[in-house]
Write a structure and sequence with these properties.
single chain; alpha/beta; six-stranded parallel sheet; four-stranded antiparallel sheet; 27 helices; 10 strands; RCK_C; Na(+)/H(+) antiporter
């Protein structure tokens, strides 16, 4: 009978985790992160609501694994290329020079931590909590899980202000996670000495170099397909090894999981592997964890204690002040709306607050009611801060944005193409070897060319190539093209296109999610199309009515049918690609976020539609 009840509780939790995103989509509640909605659903079916789910071995184990995998993915989200970027500073629209992203982010986080420490002592003096260290970690932490998707949706990830916000969140994640491990080692008697944590980090360094050594071996690539999936196996082995080592050394298991995520991020995994890990984590284990957080949260008991009830608004004010005051440093470069929007987004807290509160309650530093209060406040911040950010951040940041495109190698194709792209939504820059005076005079009058001494990786790293949205590599050496393409992808360039004539090199680059073109392939495809579909070639080659791809990023049109779409004009929707599906559009077809729309029409109107769908905020 007990086993039956156990399966029923698991069935309810998994079913509700499955239904939550569907409910959000149908009700068009796009402003609430899915993980927050899962906690709210847990509140409804748990202690605070109908109380139909009861903690047992199944749910406890899966919830713990979900928590571990969440910390792993938190470490995996950290993009370390932001720390090493050598982007040249440019002028902002207001005429001021861009700030140094890393320096400003470091100063802001230092201010956040100091301010949080001061507020923590005020909470201790007021009698709300006894441990100022734990409260400092809770106030100073920032949720990468909220910050990253919000910046992506606002199309700000590649902007300077977006990079500053992201860096502050990354630094906060790293520092608070390490300090949380130190806190546990100092406050729980059964845990080992703090210096034993150095063994864990040393093991991480060793595993990093082992992974780097074997990552690009031929036999590893062979074993990464089919039923073997050696990359996925390696990741789970790494997680278990570091989690086991963490517990053996007396540290929290989540520190080992977080370190595993950091190591995988440093090894620059291909996007297919990251997608698999995201799918497994956010598709199964992590929803169970968040639903169970809500199930175990007894909100009614919090309202029964006046002291805890008073703490909720005071802590919310403290969280806001701890971010808004240090972030005001950005007023030197940006307007007030941008500064306040940044401060509100950095106020979002979730995963690490849940981690700190859970650990604090387990080792007896805080009560179960205090743990519930802290988690409730974290949930509240994750709901309203992204909304305020979207309302305050200036829309022109997205509207006027042009996609930077870097061409490596100037030839007849790239020169001509760069001129055509210049008048549209793109900002193309050609990088070419140093020219003599006569060539330079001709080139400067027609094209924007940046001269470089050579095409080595070190030289390219000194330019803004790796900060571009699209990099096209077309030098005369295909091995050089391949090496530069791989390095560009490792540096986080979203799209890399390389000229490769050799089929062997072409396949290896496609495995790295790099797009490839060649003279032979292009000529063959063109000739076949001329024979089989001459009318299609006329459409593609017509400058006025070509085929264009638009990615739907504006949540304002999410769920809208094409029949009601207000910007049709002379645009015809030819095809909609959604994940792996190819959809023939008709009047009742609903648009969804991240749809790839293939349209035809005049270029001017297509550009206007692109601005509306790709760059406009909701």
């Amino acid at each position: 009978m007990e086993q039956h009840l156990s399966v029923i509780s698991l069935l309810i939790v998994v079913t509700m985790a499955f239904l939550t995103p569907i409910i959000l989509h149908r009700l068009k509640i796009n402003f609430i992160p899915v993980v927050v909605a899962e906690i709210i659903i847990g509140l409804i079916i748990g202690k605070s609501g109908f109380d139909v789910v009861h903690q047992d071995m199944w749910l406890s184990t899966l919830s713990t694994l979900g928590f571990i995998f969440l910390m792993f993915l938190s470490g995996l989200e950290i993009d370390f290329t932001a720390f090493t970027g050598r982007k040249k500073r440019q002028k902002l629209p207001n005429g001021k020079m861009e700030p140094n992203s890393f320096a400003v982010a470091t100063i802001i986080f230092a201010g956040i931590f100091v301010f949080s420490l001061g507020l923590s002592y005020l909470f201790v003096i007021a009698g709300f909590i006894d441990n100022a260290f734990l409260m400092t970690l809770i106030i100073s932490t920032i949720s990468l899980g909220v910050v990253v998707p919000t910046l992506k949706e606002a199309q700000l990830m590649k902007t300077v202000i977006g990079q500053i916000i992201l860096l502050v969140a990354v630094i906060a994640d790293l520092v608070t996670m390490v300090l949380l491990a130190v806190f546990v080692s100092l406050n729980e008697p059964k845990h080992g000495n703090t210096w034993l944590l150095l063994i864990l980090f040393a093991a991480g360094i060793v595993l990093y170099f082992v992974g780097k050594r074997f990552k690009n071996r031929t036999f590893i690539e062979t074993l990464s397909t089919g039923t073997v999936q050696i990359g996925t196996r390696a990741v789970f082995t790494l997680i278990i090894v570091l989690v086991g080592l963490s517990e053996t050394l007396g540290a929290e298991n989540i520190l080992g999981a977080f370190l595993a995520g950091v190591l995988v991020s440093l090894l620059s995994p291909n996007q297919e592997l990251v997608h698999k890990l995201d799918s497994f984590g956010y598709g199964f284990l992590i929803p169970i964890f968040f639903v169970m957080v809500g199930v175990n949260l007894d909100v009614l008991s919090l309202f029964s204690e006046k002291k805890l009830l008073l703490l909720i608004p005071l802590l919310l004010i403290g969280l806001l002040l701890s971010k808004l005051v240090p972030v005001y440093l950005l007023k030197i470069w940006y307007d007030k709306k941008t500064v306040f929007a940044s401060g509100f987004l950095l106020t979002s807290t979730l995963s690490l607050v849940i981690a700190a509160a859970t650990i604090g309650e387990r080792i007896g530093v805080i009560s179960e009611q205090m743990k519930g209060t802290l988690i409730l406040v974290a949930v509240i911040t994750s709901i309203f801060t992204p909304i305020l950010f979207k309302k305050l951040i200036p829309k022109e940041v997205a509207v006027n944005k042009k996609l930077p495109v870097a061409f490596l190698g100037a030839n007849q194709v790239t020169l001509s193409l760069s001129r055509e792209l210049k008048s549209g939504l793109y900002d193309p820059v050609l990088y070419h070897l140093q020219m003599d005076k006569s060539e330079k005079q001709i080139a400067d009058s027609l094209f924007e060319i940046v001269e470089i001494p050579d095409y080595t990786i070190d030289t390219i790293a000194q330019t803004q190539v790796f900060q571009s949205e699209i990099v096209v590599i077309s030098t005369g050496n295909e091995e050089q093209n391949a090496a530069l393409a791989i390095r560009a992808k490792e540096n986080g360039v979203p799209r890399v296109i390389a000229r490769i004539e050799s089929p062997d090199i072409e396949q290896s680059l496609r495995d790295h999610q790099i797009e490839v073109f060649s003279s032979f392939m292009s000529t063959k495809m063109l000739l076949r199309a001329l024979i089989e579909s001459p009318a299609v070639i006329n459409i593609l080659s017509n400058q006025e009515t070509g085929l264009y791809e638009i990615v739907m990023m504006n949540s304002q049109f999410d769920g809208m049918t094409l029949r009601k779409f207000p910007f049709t004009g002379d645009i015809i929707f030819v095809r909609i690609f959604r994940d792996k599906d190819s959809i023939v559009p008709h009047g009742d077809t609903e648009l969804q976020l991240h749809d790839r729309l293939i349209v035809t029409g005049t270029k001017e109107y297509v550009d206007e539609l692109k601005r509306e769908l790709e760059f406009c905020e909701s």
